[in-house]
Every structure is written in C-alpha cells, then in structure tokens.
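Deliverable D4.2, example record:
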Amino acid sequence: MTVQPRIAIYGAGMVGTYLGGRLHEHAKVRFIARPHVAATLKEQGLTVSDLHGYRKHLPAESLDIATQSHAARDVDAVLVTVKSAATMEVAHELADVLAPGTLVISFQNGVRNTAELRAALPSCPVLAGMVPFNVTQPEPAHFHQGSSGVLMAEQSPALASLLATFSASGLPLQQRDDMQAVLWAKLLINLNNPLNALSGLPLREELAQRAWRQCLALLQQEGLRVLHAAGIRPAQLTALPARWLPTVLSMPDAVFHRIASRMLAIDPLARSSTWDDLQAKRRTEVDYINGEIVALATSKGLRAPANAYLVALMREAEQCYVRWQPQALLRTLRNPP
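Output generated by the structure prediction step:
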C-alpha cells in the first residue's frame, strides 16, 4: 500500500483551497485557513471544478481543517499560497513549527517570496512554484479553475515523493531549472490583473477588446525594457516569446482573435485575483506585481511611469472603486500625470 504524503495548504484562499481540493484524494491534505474560510468549509464541504468539465464535491467530514500554524508541525510538505504581503509573517510562523527537512513550495504571485521563505527556514528545502491558471469562487465553498496551464516548480530531488501525487490529482508538476525567469514571465502576464479589476469585466471579455489589450501591451513594453536593463530574460510561458506579446496584444481585434485564440481560452466568468480582492475589500497585490517593475526600474536608475501610475490607481480603488473605460485609461497611461 502506498503511503499518502501529508500536505499542508498554508493560506487556504482561492488558489490554495483549489489545489488542496484536487490533491485531496491522493494525499492527506490539511487546510490551514482564516477562521471564516474554515467555518465555511466545515459547514458546506468543498467543491472543486475546472473549465474542462472536472467537478468533485468533498464532504465537510472528509476535510482536515485548521486555523493555527502549529497544524503544519507534522506534515511532509507545505504549499504556501498566502498573499505576498503575508509571506514574512508566515515564514516566521513556520520557522517555529516545521521539522527540519520539511519541503516548502511557494505557489504565490511575485518574484521575492521564495527568498523570504528561505531566509526564515534555513533547515527546510524551499522551492519556487508557479500557478499558471486562474481560480475563481462562484460560490462560498466552490473553487473553479477558469483557464489552462501546467503547474511549475523548481527542479529538486525533494520533489520526487510528490510528483506522482500531483499527476494522479490531475495537476502534473513540471520541474524547471529557470524558475526565476518563469516568475518574471508570469509577472509580465499578471500586469493585467489590475487592468482587469479596473475594467469590471471578466478576463475573456476584457482581453477581447483592443483598447484593454493596448493598455496591457504598454505595461509589458515598459516591463520588458526594465528587465532588459537588469539583464533578466523572462521564460517563454505562452506560444510566443514574452518580447512578442505586446505586438500581438496591440493587433486589431479580428487579427488578434485569429492568431491568438489560445489567450482567450478562458472560462467566461473568470476574473483576476485583484478583482476578487477589491470586491472583498482586501489590499491588493499590486505592489508585488506592477510595483516590482517600478522597484526594479528605480534600482537601475530608470522610470516605469505607466506601471507606477497603475499602482497609484489601485491604491485609490482599494478605498473607492471606480470602473475605467479603456480608451481613457490608455490615454492616461501613455501620458501619466
């Protein structure tokens, strides 16, 4: 009989709860969640689904749910899925409870989380991971994968015992030896997150409109210039190299829809995590996405005015949400105040 690995989901938000729900049948999963999330799961159980037709309901009594960090004490691996701003707090909490050698994988947005976790957990293997797909929450205890993509993680012998578990769960884990380049490439794609939030539209509807794509192309062009100046070459995560994306995004709708249809292969209701944060009145992760481009530019004596202005807009939206029209936002991003 194969012994199932013990996996803690630290930060059972949308991504973490979805991953845990998929892994549940093939691993002993423990969800470490905020009290209100834990209460919902204990009352309603958990439903996970995806755009390809997968759907499974896990009864509440089958779930292992906790709210305190000490619940990670006896696990084989921890998947960290908290917001980037909480990484250092979580790192110190885990440092107090994890046994030496416990595997930790960061499945978070941003490019700094793994380094922060490693600094606080020197006795544990800490690996960078990347979730390429979007997860939405149609109902309180229902988490839905709205786009495609393969999970990625830093290549390491420490992953050997988990690879079969992830594959059996329908979440094959691709090992990469260029994870920092992968994270920067994902960040370039995530520059759309605040745009999607400001549009008020589902992702597919937003990206179907050229003016919104031109806004994203402008942000990506600025980001690519900064990455080039820093000597960073982002990995290729899509059918096209990252440097070609702004050109393709800027194409007229008819041309874009014909040659880049895979970019629109998204569940019609899917939205960005930044949109979800605004609706929940949470602080967004814009500092760890667009703000990273601004910070890197500053470190190289450069400016990233369009991304900097979008960070400022999101700070305003966190206080008072206002939808933008794409043409107006495009004009502003081209000549930010």
